[in-house]
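Dear colleague,

Thank you for sharing your sequence with our group. We've completed the structure prediction you requested, and as agreed, I am returning the results in plain text so they can be pasted directly into your records. Please verify that the sequence below matches your submission; if there's any discrepancy, let me know and we will rerun it promptly.
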Amino acid sequence: MFDSHMHTPLCKHAEGHPVEYMNEGVAQGLAGIIMTCHSPMPNGFSSRVRMSPDQFNEYLSIVQAAADEAPDGFEVLLGLESDFFPGMEPWLRELHAKAEFHYILGSVHWHIAEYMDAFWHGDTLAFQKQYFEHLAESAETGLFDSLAHPDLVKNASPADWDFDRIRPFIEKSLDRIAQTGVAMEINTSGLNKSYPEMNPGPEMLALMAERRIPVVIGSDSHTPSRVADQFTVALDHLSSAGYDSVSLFRERKRIDLPIRQARASLRASVSL
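Please find the predicted structure tokens below.
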């Protein structure tokens, strides 16, 4: 069992060296962690919440430092959380070739200023529809192994989130994603957001299961104490939705782990 989503201080809104995340992963009984800090972007794009391009090598270095300090049998793998934004595909394609990544996590971050400036026009439903259109487009680029926090847009205006109303557009998006073979994430940090449930919520997770879309679990940790947070609950959600396996990536290839095995490994860590 891996935690496949966590950050470093280079993104300017996280704390803790990767070594600290590694130590917490060991304490939680994980087999490993995948560091996925926010990708650098060109020309100052969203620069307040991500590493700068000239910090990319530093990112590689601190992840390697954690891998070097990890105890035998525990892995620290290199990943990246890369923003999908129309027109940025060439930049990301080149960036992803600059290192031997194990996992590329694609995100549509509706809340960054550039996204709001381009796509928010005062209509909440239209904004939600645009988000799910971009989610499908991100999968179709072939740039990403998995899609992060896939219903994050419900936090834009929690009072206006009506799943039944948006469901037809989610289903169309999921149909397209399923055709690509790209996985999706269940992100446990959603429990701490303005719409307090995991991303995705149970209704969308069930639709993903119907389409046999693989799922990766990530804590989206911005502090070491959240590594593997609520993972047993996430596994329960997966089982309730109809999943019998959970996925992780190594060398950008998907590995499926039976949920019962993942659950047993986490229970073993508690018993210790």
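Summary note from our side: The mean pLDDT is 96.

Kind regards,
the structure core
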